[in-house]
# Entry
Amino acid sequence: MSLNGVDISSYQGAIDLAALPIDFVIIKATEGNSYVNPYCDSKYQQAKSMNLLRGVYHYATGRTSGTEEADWFLKNIEGYIGDAILALDWENAAVNKGVSYAKEFLDRVYSRTGIKPLLYVNRSTIDSYDWSSVVNADYGLWLATLDGSEYSSYGEFPLVAICQPWSKPMTGYNANIDQDVFYGDANAWKAYQGKKTVSTPTTNNGLKYHVGQKVRFSTCYASSTDPIAKAIPATKMLRDNGTITKIIAGAHNPYLLDNGLCWVNSGDIREVL
# Structure
């Protein structure tokens, strides 16, 4: 048995779900660590009133960390947890961050909710990376093909939960819209959505960055206690980037890079690499 549905974002903000011949809808909820789809809840509530099966997804940017993006997602979809399938949209620039970033997101959602989110990804991205860590952790696959083809399994993934074979107009909507097939019935869908349990996120003592992140800085310091007057321009260092290897919470410059390259604070960091 299979079910038919669509996935939507703010681009379909005015869509009337009641006009579509669908069994489910998956709605973009968040992106990165700052964006919330302004249409998400209104479409979610319409879908709920129609007894459609529901899902929500996060579009990864790859600009911070999998943990930070997952926490942003969960912060904004708490009311949907246990009532909708959760998913990570892994495409475009984020893909360059590699499998570990995506898995960090998936693991974070699972550790805080007890629910394993689906991974949305296309065939090229599966073919180009080693996904064994995600497969072995039993995360489900939402496969994008967009050429009409469907798969029951693909690459290292033994099972395709959802396939997205088309993005084209359909009855009730005259513009292109992503169309999906779920390989199961309503009970199988509800098994993927799980039950609601959300833990409080660990915040690393309120600090923005965490050990293991590679960052680029504009200025740095010789010690964790140096005042801003002792800031060293990155142009005077051997390099302008490094990996956070130690954190001293409460210090003026809490992040140690590369076990001794220098110390930085959040204001010194320009980007996460």
Observations:
- The CA atoms of residues 83 and 146 lie 27 Å apart.
- The chain has two domains: 3-193, 206-272.
